[in-house]
Amino acid sequence: MWGKPPFSIPDNYAIDVCDLAAAGEWYKEKLGLHVAHNEREEDSGRPFLDLRMSDEAFLSLVELPPGASVENRHVVFFAKNLEKAKQWLAGRGVLAEPITTDSGGNRLFRFRDLEGNTIEVCIEPG
């Protein structure tokens, strides 16, 4: 319906979430991720869900124990075209910040997931 996501996950990331089921649905619906079927066990013993776009790196959502606070990690996705990526996300109801340039000259924008975790989308290197 929305086409392939116009960004990629360059490395494996883990994101703490309070509601694993709701967060998993949000990442599948809004970012076009799919469940990664594997036999991996989470070192912490907490419930988790591995998601990916294709055969690339995966994003692990790890459920926090009740009452624990979320540690906001810096997650980075890469895109070839920031404007297209931002427009694609907007079409799925994801509000993103304006495209900016950081102190190193990298162009990027940020958005937040269902639980307030920040995700940065920047221009693919090279």
Please give a structural write-up.
- This protein has 126 residues and is α/β, with parallel strands linked by helices.
- It has one domain (13-123): 2,3-Dihydroxybiphenyl 1,2-Dioxygenase, domain 1, CATH 3.10.180.10.
- The chain contains two helices and eight strands, in the order E-H-E-E-E-E-H-E-E-E.
- It has helices spanning 20-31, 82-91; strands at 13-17, 34-35, 48-52, 59-63, 75-79, 100-101, 107-112, 118-123.
- The protein has a four-stranded mixed sheet, covered by helices on one side. It has a four-stranded mixed sheet with strand order 5-8-7-6.
- The protein is globular and about 40 Å long.
- The termini are far apart.
- The mean pLDDT is 87.
Indicate the topology:
Layout: E1 13-17, H1 20-31, E2 34-35, E3 48-52, E4 59-63, E5 75-79, H2 82-91, E6 100-101, E7 107-112, E8 118-123
Parallel strand pairs: 1-4, 5-8
Antiparallel strand pairs: 2-3, 3-4, 6-7, 7-8
